[in-house]
Design brief:
Structural class: alpha/beta
Strand order of the largest sheet: 2-3-1-4-8
Largest sheet: 5 strands, parallel
Mean pLDDT: 97
Strand content: 15-25%
Radius of gyration: 17 Å
CATH class of one domain: Alpha Beta
Oligomer: single chain
CATH architecture of one domain: 3-Layer(aba) Sandwich
Helix content: 40-55%
Distance between the termini: 11 Å
Bound molecules: adenosine monophosphate
CATH superfamily of one domain: P-loop containing nucleotide triphosphate hydrolases
Order of helices and strands: EHEHHHEHEHEEEHHEH
Length: 215
């Protein structure tokens, strides 16, 4: 049983660690960004509403996000926990999540917070490539695929996320500083925050996370 949140600026490595954490603890990975991107791909109403905010590097309005996450957390596979990635992103979302957990007799076990310098974030975001088919994440310099432009795992084509260009990436980092960074204090106060150095090698960060949570 593990109920956890990944917190950190865009490019901090949340998605990368998420893949490992959900495998180890056998819990669902709930990424609001992934949910929105899937909706955009499918052309749903929600996707249409979210798209312009995402392309500008702005947050999608709270009212489009909170109910979506609550519905997801009520699904059967979340009975033994979950890993939230990219949610909450505002104090309002965090309060709504706490309220929801309390109403359901649950509580957050840990908020895993990644600290990374801004220059590192920009280099990571602009160099990121993701697989069109399976969503696996690469970096042109730090984590290159074996064959350029092709996913190691499924052979799918790699592409750049629309919001990973320099201008939008910078906006996203600023939006994080203004709207999401206050969550660090919020969760510190409730005693669930655990800080990690997001610039360490991936395996090392993962080992530290497991050490903190327990095997
Ligand atoms: P991510 O994949 O987490 O980087 O999210 C990509 C984009 O989706 C963000 O820049 C926002 O526009 C939107 N988004 C994802 N999660 C949230 C959230 N919890 N609240 C508001 N917008 C979100």
């Amino acid at each position: 049983m593990l109920r956890a949140v990944l917190l950190g600026p865009p490019g901090a490595g949340k998605g990368t660690q998420a893949v490992r954490i959900v495998e180890k603890y056998d819990i669902p990975h709930i990424s609001t960004g992934d949910i929105f991107r899937a909706n955009i791909k499918q052309g749903t109403e929600l996707g249409k509403k979210a798209q312009e905010y995402m392309n500008a590097g702005q947050l999608v309005p709270d009212e489009l996000v909170v109910d979506l996450v609550k519905d997801r957390l009520l699904q059967d596979d979340c009975k033994n926990g979950f890993l939230l990635d990219g949610f909450p992103r505002t104090i309002f979302q965090a309060e709504q999540l706490d309220k929801f957990l309390e109403e359901n007799g649950q509580k957050m076990d840990i908020v895993i917070n990644f600290n990374v310098a801004k220059e590192t974030l920009m280099a990571r975001l602009t160099g990121r490539r993701v697989c069109k088919s399976c969503g696996a994440s690469y970096h042109i310099i730090n984590i290159p695929p074996k064959q350029e432009g092709i996913c190691d795992t499924c052979g799918g084509a790699l592409e750049q996320r629309k919001d990973d260009n320099a201008e939008t990436a910078e906006n996203r980092i600023n939006v994080y500083d203004e709207q999401t960074a206050p969550l660090i204090g919020y969760y510190k106060e409730s005693g669930v925050l655990a800080d990690f150095d997001g610039e360490l090698p991936l395996d090392e960060i993962f080992n530290q996370i497991v050490e903190t949570i327990g095997a």
